[in-house]
């Protein structure tokens, strides 16, 4: 049985070009990049080459890139590091109720340290209102953190408007760009962002490498202590193969962006039309929002989303019921609940996230599978007996 992968927001397969770069570095970059000998300096060259490539994807200077172990560490370093370095006795942070757990749980840590955190809700459209952010700003606000693209619905947040607002009010602005990198054009200076997080395994690189853009002059208290690596912002010997692979992936993403956005958007729209035409009482969550091209969240009334995910898996399709970091959770999606969906609607939703390997033929096969699985599960579902 053929298998088709539609869960690219959870993680992406390693691209062939990235795998080739990874294998080369694993074989040849044997030195510690902090060593002065030739082997060490060769490894340093690969790290700095990756830094330049990652910076080009984000539109910043190479020295403003800090390599991390992934998006979670990048988000934690941004929030905990910036707030702890603020020096304010009274500290206030603004974020949204639809953020990834890497941001929400970091905010929870700050609350336990005595920091006041405001969680702004999103409307049914899935995109927060900048005016709602503005109304929450107070003299002790030190940081605003808003994701660029939601990992479940794909809804793009108005980060440019919020960034201008934050700059006007003298407040630091962090953007979790993990789901936007490689799927939307990014210019951290244009946003404007002070901090911007990305993850390698979301852009066809291996797991275990990420990066945080830190605008020149922004102070961070490090999360770990040791040597003077990453300009004293992240101690520890750099993951040379991981960051080199991520740099290759960033360069590839930058070059393919112009062709992949319209291609994947066309496939996503084809998928949505096909499912809505074939499956009664189905709807697209945040369908009116401006979204990244590859993502759709569809609820199918009367069906448990996890059951549909399993049924599709048995037919050879990998999809998701929401954030991979929340899989196995009993509670319905916090994102969909924050948008005003009922717990039943949230539980009946599944996420499809496309990638470079997906084709129109695969999408059509997925539509057939969703229609067949939905019909079967509804026959078994007491929740759908009223329709």
Short structural summary:
With 387 residues, the protein is of the alpha/beta class. The protein has helices spanning 16-28, 38-58, 71-84, 101-112, 130-136, 159-169, 229-232, 240-278, 305-314, 334-338, 343-347, 360-380; strands at 4-5, 65-68, 92-96, 116-120, 141-147, 172-176, 195-199, 210-214, 282-285, 295-300, 317-318, 349-353.
What gap, in angstroms, lies between the N and C termini?
34 Å
User: How would a textbook summarize the main sheet?
Assistant: 7 strands, mixed
CATH class type of the largest domain: Alpha Beta
**What's the architecture of the largest domain in CATH terms?**
3-Layer(aba) Sandwich
Shape category: globular
Question: Helix- and strand-based class?
Answer: alpha/beta
The percent range for helix content is 40-55%
How many structurally independent domains?
2
Remind me, CATH topology of the largest domain?
A: Aspartate Aminotransferase, domain 2
CATH superfamily of the largest domain: Type I PLP-dependent aspartate aminotransferase-like (Major domain)
Helical element count? 12
Q: For the residues shown, what is the average pLDDT? A: 95
- What quaternary form is this? single chain
Low-pLDDT segments, ≥5 res: none
Strands, count: 12
What share of the residues does DSSP label as strand, in percent? 5-15%
Strand order of the largest sheet: 2-8-7-6-5-3-4
* Rg over CA atoms: 21 Å
- Write down the secondary-structure element order: EHHEHEHEHEHEEEHHEEHEHHEH
